[in-house]
Amino acid sequence: MARKLSSIAPDWWDYTTLSDDIIRDAAKLTLRQMEKLSRPGFKVVMYDTLEDFYLAEALEYIEAWKQATPDNPVGICGPIGPTEQLPLVARLVNSLGLNVRSGHFWGMDEWFDGKKEVSLKHPLSFEKADRELCFNRIDRRLRMSDLNLHFPKADVKPYCDSWEGVRCAVMQGGQGDIKHWAFNDPLPRKGKWKNSPPPPREYRKLATRIVDLHPITLAQNARTSGGGNVTLVPKKAITVGPQETWQAEKVSIWHAGTHDNPFGLRLTTFMISEGIADSSVPMSLLADHPNVQFNFYRSGIGTCDVEMH
Known about the structure:
By secondary structure, the protein is of the alpha/beta class. It has one domain: Rossmann fold (3-Layer(aba) Sandwich), CATH 3.40.50.1360. The chain is 28% helix and 16% strand. It contains ten helices and ten strands. The chain has helices spanning 20-27, 31-35, 50-66, 85-96, 126-133, 157-161, 200-203, 215-225, 242-245, 262-274, and strands spanning 42-47, 74-78, 103-107, 109-112, 149-150, 167-173, 209-212, 236-239, 251-255, 292-297. The strands form two sheets. The chain has a seven-stranded parallel sheet with strand order 1-10-9-6-2-3-5, with helices on both faces. The chain has a three-stranded antiparallel sheet with strand order 4-8-7, with no helix packed on it. Helix 1 (20-27) crosses helix 10 (262-274) and helix 3 (50-66) packs across helix 4 (85-96). The protein is globular and about 55 Å long. The two termini are 37 Å apart.
């Protein structure tokens, strides 16, 4: 049977093309049921306060960098969205006097203006946010050099090469409305993928690359970062790919309830727990990664009950 057309953007794949059974089973999950969806290789963790939530996220940076030595460099790949952990990372490094000069950091993604990556002067620049919220705040005597900070550029080769010889202890991420990590959005519905989305094994072949962004991703970034001004948001981006993701020893996704919605949080948790990998829901492909952790702020999960506002 042919897959449904998207009810959001018919020229794209997305979660609305899934079977009604998956949609229904995910939407009816209670918070208590979500807590029980852990399985080997997939762990669901709940936090009762935002302070505990963001501190735990920041500590993943510290724990990764503490493992790094000149002969055994170790790093973390981190998102913009959420960002609240970033100043905490700098504060922890400075307060503990932690030498992180052997540590590495990979930014997950960056905007592409049609010719090159956006400059640090662009108001939505992810590299700018990482530097201003975290790295520029770390004591220079403790901080790694710029050679150990890797941000994706239009020429993706240096970024891809930076993963060689450095162990990525953890890749963090958030989840967008379109159920992506980084900018691994669903693909357009055209060409060989006109009638069905790419099989998971095909999508997983994708490395760091320049991508077209799903309309929902454009609207979400305008909402969360630009006051709703969609004209600020570039239509393309450079994103870390599944190839690099599967090099990370652990993938840790942080759900504060400020990016995706109650249904989306349930959908990807359900699909990963049940081993349902479908590239129309890119986050669900993590069902095949050997070590994934979903972190939730309990009060941010919400419900799928119908409420008229």
